[in-house]
Amino acid sequence: AEADAARILAEADAECAAILAVAEENAAKLRTDAEDAADAEGASVVSRARAAAETERRGILLAGRCRAIDAAFSAAEKKICGMPSENYLGFLVALAREASAGQSGECTVTLNRSDRVSFGRALIEQMKSRGDGIEWRLSDGEARISGGLLLDFGKTRIDCSVASLIAEARPALEADVCRLLFGSGEERKNG
Question: Exposed e or buried b for every residue in 45-67, given b needs 16+ CB within 10 A?
Fold first, then answer.
């Protein structure tokens, strides 16, 4: 009976050892799989974080470039409005002539306060001297514009403000301004 008991215990020990070996093997595989999954998830998280950071970096860069482009067009407006008096009067006359081509009747010219005081009378005198059949007159009011002028032919208003002219020209000039400010794409890659 002792021999049977010893044999049963030996078989039980062997069976337990086999079960423990399988369990340890399964545990090792589960641990390896979990580590691999954690590594893969970690790499995925790092990859997503890098992509998000790159997107944020590009957004910040784009916003900065947009501000620089806006500043360039704003500087152009200030430069036009601040040109020497003799040039600026000629600029106003040229604007009025071009915008009034083909018009007739009475035209009321509205300027901002400073331009009205500095150039109003001289502008109207030069426009009247053209003999174009338009009755030119200076508005009693003032326009809320940085520079340029507004022409009213009856109910038709022609906006020749500097801001309006720049806004109209901006789409055609923006690519050139970008190249001047930031260089071409090839220069950025190499420099």
Answer: eeeeeeeeeeeeeeeeeeeeeee
**Structural element, H or E, at residue 156:** strand 156-161
The side-by-side arrangement of strands in the sheet containing 134-138 is 134-138, 105-110, 148-153, 156-161
Element (H, E) at 54: helix 2-81
CA 185 → CA 56, 57, 66, 174, 188, distances in Å? 20, 17, 16, 15, 5
pLDDT tens figures, 88-141 = 999 999 999 999 998 889 999 999 999 999 999 999 999 999 888 899 999 999
pTM score: 0.67
Pairing assessment for the beta strands 105-110 and 134-138 based on DSSP bridges: parallel
